[in-house]
Amino acid sequence: MTKTTKNRTALVHGGTRRSQYGEVSEALFLTQGFVYETAEAAEARFVKAGEDEFIYARYGNPTVRMFEDRISGYLGYEDGFACASGMAAVNGALMALLKAGDHVVASRALFGSCLYVLEDVLARFGVEITLVDGTDNAAWNAAIRADTRLVFLESISNPTLEVIDLRHVCDLAHARGALVLVDDAMATPVFSYARECGADLTIISTTKHIDGQGRMLGGIICGTKELIRGPIETYVKHTGGAMNPFTAWSHLKALETLELRVRAQAAAAYQVAEALAGHPKLAAVRYPTHAAHPQSALALAQAEAGGTVLTFEVKGGRSACFAVMNALQVATISNNFADSKSIATHPATTTHQRLPQAQKDLLGISDGLVRFSVGLEDVDDIIADLLAALDAA
Fold this sequence. Notes:
By secondary structure, this protein is an alpha/beta fold. It has helices at residues 8-13, 39-47, 62-75, 86-97, 112-122, 137-143, 166-175, 194-197, 207-211, 225-239, 245-255, 258-276, 296-302, 317-326, 357-363, 379-392; strands spanning 79-83, 103-107, 128-132, 148-154, 179-183, 201-204, 219-223, 282-286, 309-314, 332-333, 343-345, 369-373. Strand 2 (103-107), helix 5 (112-122) and strand 3 (128-132) form a beta-alpha-beta unit.
């Protein structure tokens, strides 16, 4: 197939490998190991495996390889390594590329588990961590040094939806010799701009938009072949973070509808933000490309849409916020996002509850903040549900 990038054709056909049976749907290879014709053939493969030669499921698998090729090509990268979860991908990339004495600059507005890996795990092993206000270009200018090894950030932060000037950060980091690692969970694979802005590596939590239906945990690290098949593959395959073949097969089927689902959800998310903006019971509404977001101009300059998630802050704090959430009839209360079902999350008491109060205050994770993931229900029903819940509370 002709190489295609960032279009629906690539999500349907990219990376396809067919067995001798010529199947139409991608084959699911549920096997731990692989058979060799001779002992000499086994020896040769362990010395250097070919492009379509596999050794052990922890190292690679034909079904997993199809998924890696398809999504990395779609995102515009040379290669990818699929992992057991989004956090396995974050941990794998960071641990593979860093060592004691290295310096990392990261945005302080990160998912709680990412902060744990940086501040508790990597710092314990002698990696120097500097956290900055990701929305402040001057803060990046001051923090990234000539000896900085890696810059890590979420292109759109979870849960406060801060938008980072990614091209500025990438240009600055590269000028000072640092790699840039971007977590693209909120931006979505469909509206990802990490590669276009110069990010060396992109992490996708495939649990989110790629699975999109609340079934499978997964993650992938995408980047140059040198980085992916070098330090990253070496670290992940030896530490056991590889993706299960059944997950990869399920993801392959989900990729066929990824653009259809995510584009519909993003359009609906904008409509929901428009309907909620200015509501008397809300202190704020944020969706990256909506005018109510303070960085909407930057968001629009980087992507055509702001993803599938918005936030709103209920006046009256936690009790009022809980009353609104408990009154929802269409949306569910959970801690996931990017599902086909609309989901309301209270970050302060769930996904980010372990953060000290001072850090929550700094990030804007208030007791009234709701992260709302827009699903595939009729958008009029979603809006009516939210407005009714606000009225009931």
